[in-house]
Structure prediction request, 1062 residues.
Amino acid sequence: MTTRLIAIALLRELMIHPWQLALTLFSIAAGVSVVVGVDIANQAALGEFERANQTIDGVATHRIVGGPTGIDERIFQQIKVAAAIREAAPVVTAEVAVQGRSGSYRLLGIEPLSDFRIRDLQLSNAEGPEQPLPAWPLYVPQELYDLAEKSLVLKSGRHIQQFNIAGSLDSESTQSASLSRLLVTDIAWAQSFLKSGGRLSHIELNLPEGFDQSSLRNQLPDSVRLVDVELFNNARSDMTRAFRINLTALSLLALVIAMFLIYSTVSFQVIRRRHMFALLRAAGVTNQELVAILLIEVTALAIAGTAVGLVLGSLLANGLGAMVVETINALYYSLVEPAHTANWSSIIKAVLLGITATLLASALPIALAGRTTVRGLLLRSDEEKSARQLSARALVPAILLLALGIVLLIVPVESLVIAFIGLFMLILGLAALTPWVVRRLCQLASRFGGRALGLIPKMALLSVGAHLSRTSIAVAALSVAVSATLGVGLMIDSFRNSVEDWLNGYLRSDIYLTSESVGQEFLSPKFLQQIQSLDAVAYLSTGRRHTLSTSNVPTVLFTLQTAKNGFAGFQIKQSLDGDLWNRFHSQEQVLISEPLARRRDLVPGDKITLPTDHGKIDFVVAAVYYDYSSDQGLVTMDRNTYARYFNDELVASAAVKIVEGAEVAAVMEAVRNLPAAPQELFLRSNQGLRQASLEVFDQTFRVTEVLRWLAIIVAVVGIVSALVALQLERGREFAVLRAVGFSRIQLGIQILLETGITGLCAGLMAIPMGVALAVCLIKVINVRSFGWSMQTVIDGNLIVQAMMLAIVAATLAGLYPAVRLWRTEIGYGLRND
Amino acid sequence: MNSLNQTNVSLEGVCKAYDEAGIRRMVLNQLELQAVGGEFVSIRGPSGSGKSTLLNILGGIDRADSGRVQISDTNLIGLGETARTLFRRHHIGFVFQFFNLVPTLTVTENLRLPLELCKKYQNDNEVRLWLERFGLEGRSGAFPDVLSGGEQQRVAIIRAAIHRPSLILADEPTGNLDASVSEEVLQLLREVADQGACVVMATHSEEAAHASDRRLLLKDGQLYPQTVF
Ligand SMILES: Nc1ncnc2c1ncn2[C@@H]1O[C@H](COP(=O)(O)OP(=O)(O)OP(=O)(O)O)[C@@H](O)[C@H]1O
Ligand SMILES: [Mg+2]
Prediction:
């Protein structure tokens, strides 16, 4: 093996260029940290969801659930006694707000004797076990208990009740963090609080293996169903799968950009040390030994960079975690709270990824170093020649990669992962084309610009082409990053446009009334009647959206009672022939939203089976309509149809169309003042609801935005350092030019022109890449992730912005060398190579 | 002193051609050379005549197209790249015109490098002895960039010789030194040869050539003795 001295020589060499060393470490750390950050954030969100479920589900394997109003209490006796299922626990549960505390809590009403077989909840009494419990007793998490309050006011919809704190909650099997949003009381108190006497939310069962489920199913009434808890929870966490895959893909894109930089910095280190390598080769060091020691060096860098990346990543995870949870809360279901516990799997994944990515990115430069010849005390022109050959040789693989990427994107499979692989190939292919394109562009410009160009610009153009071996990778990285911003930007823009268009058509009423978002709030029939009878009200639509959880695949059902006019707001994608209103209103047919049609592979004319209170019923799908409000998809059913199949009269929201000439604000006031109006009535104008909807939309993309900027920062640091290093290395060349008679201003301009042209090229490449990326995201990724189709909108502003970003970043890189040039003496430059 | 005391360098019918823009150009054409340990041979020739090419072939850096390159018992023509490198490590020392020293190693460390590569390093005594003998003891801890050109070149020659190779190849070792410094460098090469190594030096300079035992001229791809001048 090679000697210790060589290691010392290389190490000292690295230390002489601390900035490049720092940049290599930064590239590795940046890539790793983004991946780790997203991974931890994703896992935290998911883990929290699972932990919360675990605490709440306990050892339950199955659950008996009913329709929107739950199930009859007597079913519990029936199964416990008649079916002899010993491990069964009735539950009354609701999402509640606690006065004076933010966020929502889960209230669990249990029957302690049954419950301890299912859940490991330990209730410790404040007053000691022998004391009688107060009325409205409540067991609260330790953290709340420590506040030493006597009572808490709980709110669920229109129900408000003061509970007395009876003691604290504890659990041996789960971490206390997952109990932090749980409140426990006796089932009877919960029923009277929620005014649901005689009804249960569900019954938890722990069925032994081999239990005869079909006989149990036969004993249950039609409106009630036995579901598998695991399948049910899986379906719930599946909802966020696409969202999480998208985040992971973005983080991988950041890693790819980081790999470009690693490649570029390692190449730098190899090129810079070529004399030393040649010297070592002359002294009898073999190429294999050289490669081995470089591999060790790079591995050490990878380990150091990864370590830094892990630290940065866990910091990032804090911020991202909160955002991810917020988004999931806004879009899918309420999680408890983000918890960031860095888990080993994230860390191991990151370490492997960091080291593999670094080694992969360094493979080519190190292999080239392994071909060092002693004649390699050579001139740079040789390397430029080989870089030129390399960029020409990369042409065919680049085009193949592009073609393969496109094929993967257009093959009609539903796999999101394949789409992302295709997308990455497309990006890599385009990136691999970049050096060749930049060289060609410079050649063309200097040839056809001919006489029109002055000497300096012409020299700058030639110089950019000539130094590509040093800059092409940084340019490619910048192109990829800029195209990523452009692509994602165009996608979000197009998406937002589609959503806005859709909202404009969909929101046909003037005032929207909803319940408080926490808990279930319903609008009373009396109140609705009073609204209807107001003079200014043209017509009233009412709706209720809830999840039919009585099967393993939850379906969101939207029940709507509206006038024909209001119905016209649906933007139909495909429908059966004939009068749609009639089919919907009179023939018991349903509409389904686009994502649902895609998920379940349904077209108009197909049947969809829904679990109703009268058992499973098939409904004809009359039409598929555009809807961006849920990526799970919805079934929309007329209220009359609903009333026939469900024993549920509750209305959760209403929309008012006012007569011409009436004032929205005045009608809102009148509605608020109606005698039957509930206290927590939530009124929103059309405008307000539209804005709120767009806010949710923007919220969804906030994480994306952050990741996009991280990728840009990584790329900008990369291009700046690559260009600065290149320009600084040319001290001798500039000194010669100065000696020939070029002024400092001329050279300064040349440097800025060179870096600016480099940026321009990167920007130019980024435009087709960005647009291609946007089209992929819109036409393939989004459709496969969320099932939403939308129109592609190419906003010129975004393109100009992307272009400016590339040019400004690159030009900035020229400033420092230009200033330094200003300050150095010619002689110094000539003496110091 | 030398382990291969009777070094025999023997080149027979060595040919080397390069392709330049599709045209094949013979640089070395049926070249012959015989030299022995203790001999200091100089090779002159116009620029582009193939001096460096010849030295590179002797040192196993380049490979001749045909012929025989025999150094003691080894015919370099038959060896692969790695074998030639290992041969070079143990039996050959190189001195170039520039960039001879690893810039991030001190003088002592640079000198230790070939010893470590050959697994001959025990302690710095040997290094110190060499440095003292050539008046460089004060510079042992210095990095190459603070040495003068002459000092750098002397350290380079010591480094080429310290592991006692049988053949030392110097490609224009005095190329960028002034007369008096060149003198010292040539003196050093002379001493190395006296210790038993065979020294082959390529040079442009007539004075440098005069320091050698045998002067050869490389012309039209062949070597001619240059005794009369
Ligand atoms: N790798 C190569 N590829 C093509 N031609 C080469 C290569 N190396 C050397 N040559 C050519 O071979 C010829 C001999 O080169 P060489 O370097 O041996 O000459 P030299 O005598 O050392 O010249 P100088 O005195 O200038 O150093 C030159 O014409 C050179 O262009
Ligand atoms: Mg030469």
Q: What stands out?
A: The two ends of chain A are 32 Å apart (CA to CA). Chain A touches chain B at residues 2-6, 8-10, 12-13, 16, 275-276, 278-288, 373-375, 377 (CB under 8 Å). Residues 502 and 571 of chain A are 8 Å apart (CA to CA). Chain A has a mean pLDDT of 80.
